[in-house]
Amino acid sequence: MLLTATLLGLIAALGILDGRLLGVSMIDRPLVMCALTGLVCGNLHEGILIGATLELIFLGNVAIGAAHPPHIVTRSELATAITNMTGRGPEAPLTNPNQDSKLAILLGSSAVSWFLEAIPPVITNGLIVASKILPALGFALLISMMLSSKLMPYLGLGFLIAAYTKLDIIAIALFAVVLAFIISQFLNLKQQES
Prior knowledge:
The chain is mostly helical. The protein folds into two domains: 2-146, no CATH class; 148-194. The protein has helices spanning 2-17, 30-41, 44-57, 72-86, 91-94, 98-107, 109-118, 121-146, 152-165, 169-193. α1 runs antiparallel to α2 (30-41), α2 packs parallel to α4 (72-86) and α6 (98-107) packs across α7 (109-118).
């Protein structure tokens, strides 16, 4: 247990130093932090799933100047560690507020497990629903920041392709890359002619 705690502390330190001393290498993103935490806790698959969910929630949160997103590293590690140590699903720890993160660090996994068991099912079910809504909210916030009349047709095209062709996201992204290349070549050709 001491080795696991030490490794988790080193992973957290690495995530916190990213962007501050090591340059921005995106180690502090939830996908990386949760995967590393899952690897240390013995469940890499669960870590990647939690990381992907948290990545959707924090998708629009980037450091701008001195403003940093709220505790992405701590929340990523705690959500993964709590899920692995308590054996509960990943939904409950995903909605931990800031004070719960500090409490979990101070009291350890047994206290967190007892606390999670003491929560009434009605609240747990509400947290599960909230954890399913948060990724959509994060994605909607990101779209609202970059939404413009120029980009609306491409957003609509991507939505229609996803809805009616049943292609996966990677295929649609590859289609978008090819389309972007064709459009940029067309615009460059048009600009050279004038």
